[in-house]
Amino acid sequence: MSDTDSPQTWDHPTVRLKQGELTLVQSLGATGLRQPCLVQYSGEAPGQRHALPEGTLSLGRAPDCAVQLDSPGVSRRHAELVVQGDTVRFNDAGSVNGSWVNDKRVRAPVLLNDGDLLRLGELVLKFYGRNSVDALLHDHIYRMATVDAGTEVFTKRYVMDTLAREMRRARRHKRPLSLLCIDLDHFKSVNDRWGHNAGDTVLREAAATAHGALRNTDVLGRCGGEEFVAVLPETTLEEARTLAERVRSALAARSIALQGEDGADLRHVQTASIGVATFTATLTTARDLLGEADARMYEAKRDGRNRVAG
Ligand SMILES: Nc1nc2c(ncn2[C@@H]2O[C@H](COP(=O)(O)OP(=O)(O)OP(=O)(O)O)[C@@H](O)[C@H]2O)c(=O)[nH]1
């Protein structure tokens, strides 16, 4: 998923369930001018959506491609799309493994229609035109699978997939990669003192605060009840420590407004203990990296909580 496509910065109003009814048609009307998009149907990130803004867009593995497709068999500059109003033209850009639209090899510009299947090498994508109801439904389902309903940060599954993908990228390009394990302190006492609803509010607000302290390129997910993991691509250990401290201090500085079970207005400061780990010659698997961040987080707890270790 590209930064601009992150569910945390979703680019159109969410399709919501209202009283059990999926209000697709109303949502479609409310969104007005939607962009056409491509959705990956295979490869490392099935379900990933690429919005297609107006202009000439390159598709390929190169990091500066407008539609970046980090998949084996896709050339660095594989194909090109020209988006003009409701018209979208697709062409191969001299790729090694070729491009197809609906199983027909592309050798000259092709006008795309809603629902067309594109194949770049082995990678299959589906094209959705502007205002496609299918694309809205797809977004809704994808969002349910990748965003935690209680906190609006990513699900554990999404963050683990991201970690695996970023580790492959870090290894291949010899780039730094770090991880934060963020665990709220004495969270059980929030539930015990003020009830589960107050606990849910604290979880949601703490997640929003942590997300706000991170960068657009970082991926924050909820990995357990009151435990979060942040994947930090292109980040050294030193930079990760600085970010962890930024998250810790943002949480410690935030006074969350709550209502107790008796309706009384309350305020609560929810601190966290944070473990930091980085991808090195000895920490080479996702399990190693998560284990190290988790161990450092427990060290922060043992040292008194509301601190960063690692
Ligand atoms: N309100 C609410 N509580 C949750 C949710 N998920 C987990 N919890 C609670 O989170 C609490 C976690 O408690 P512990 O694992 O003992 O940790 P802690 O109290 O934060 O203590 P330390 O981690 O040692 O600082 C448990 O009481 C869970 O019931 C949730 O979605 N909502």
TrEMBL record:
It catalyses: 2 GTP = 3',3'-c-di-GMP + 2 diphosphate. Residues 175-310 form the GGDEF domain. GO terms for biological process: cell adhesion involved in single-species biofilm formation; negative regulation of bacterial-type flagellum-dependent cell motility. One of its GO terms (molecular function) is diguanylate cyclase activity. Pfam families: FHA (PF00498), GGDEF (PF00990). InterPro entries: Diguanylate_Cyclase (IPR050469), FHA_dom (IPR000253), GGDEF_dom (IPR000160), Nucleotide_cyclase (IPR029787), Rev_trsase/Diguanyl_cyclase (IPR043128), SMAD_FHA_dom_sf (IPR008984). It comes from the Bacteria. Gene3D superfamilies: 2.60.200.20, 3.30.70.270. This is diguanylate cyclase. It comes from Rubrivivax rivuli.
